[in-house]
Structure of Sulfopropanediol 3-dehydrogenase:
Amino acid sequence: MSRLPIPETVTFIKAPGRDAAADNAPVEKLVAEVIARVESEGDAAVAEYSARFDKAELSRFEVTAEEREQALSRLDPQTRADTEFAIANVRAFAEAQLGSMSEIEIEIRLGVHLGHRNIPLERVGCYVPGGRYPLLSAPVMSIVPAKVAGVGEVIACLPPNAHEAMIAGCHLSGADRIFRIGGAQAIAAMAVGTESVPAVDKIVGPGNAFVNEAKRQIFGPVGIDQLAGPSEIFILADHTGDAEMIATDLLAQAEHDTRTRVGLITTDAALAKAVLAEVDRQLETLSTAATAGQAWRDYGEIALCPDEATMIAYSDIVAAEHLQVHTEDAKAFARRLSHYGSLFIGTNASVVYSDKCCGTNHTLPTMGAGRYTGGLWVGTYIKTVTHQWLDEEGIRQVAPPAVRQSASEGLEGHRRAAALRLERLQAR
């Protein structure tokens, strides 16, 4: 549940049965063991954990050039065309984002020059989840923006039992090296480096609870994109909402995982009841109902609000990963929203389009993190670093206040460093 108070006027037509944040398995100890052993034993530990967790006995982890080409040749032609369609869209959007990231240098005071540069990371690790299904969009979302950003080397890790098409997806997306390693051991290998896997500077990509915990534990010496919880979709709807469409979109996301959080926030009681009935009706014929139905029972919710202001207030508290707007004037309504991972404006903008191929990234903040961060984008792979240089007039500008501030703080070494250049300048 949210750490922020829910408005008292919100009524739950259906309340979630469980708290997704409290249901994480106690994996911290096991993940710590995996990281420690991979750091001390390298490939041997990776092999042992791959056999233990993924039932995969591997003599080597890296996918060869021949295996990459073989996976590509076996890829269904239409699947390849669709993957390349997604790659083109994600690349085009990432290139546009990169073009918006300007470098600057300004003379902030006479003789004082400040600036920043955008420098791509040298080596990035992309974790590509296997999951219940072969998620062909997953490598596209993490690898393509890295290549657009100019990352020197992109390492991809995916579970050894992942569908062969996932290898083809990594290859088409531009991965420099691909490894058949999954779970916490993959994160550990990329973080500390082994005989086979090079250590990276940053790790991105979603995964299960073990992957998430491993990312949390290695963060510091290695960067991460974010800590991703179970997927989420919320839909904001007024009296114009279409119950069939809303239920369809909720269940489309619910089939990801039994812990997916799905919800409707509405001002219309009749719509709330209609969606509740429609979800039950659609579950009767949905082939993935075992997963989607459990997610709906455990984490689904329908919240009824007395007015638009309350609907927006509750939505901003949830800060949903995916937020759809189904209101009479969706564009105007969307401008009033502040907290979300990605926003889907109007009934034509389904989360599924972004999940697969429209061009925005599907790796997004969950569990309320949309209140302080956005999702994966080309800037994730770039560090913006500052620089400064001063001429003689710049020394005259900044040295006296720096000397005084250092003296008032009792930092004599600072005071001397600030004063030395001014003293030499004055001596000249």
Summary: The mean pLDDT is 95.
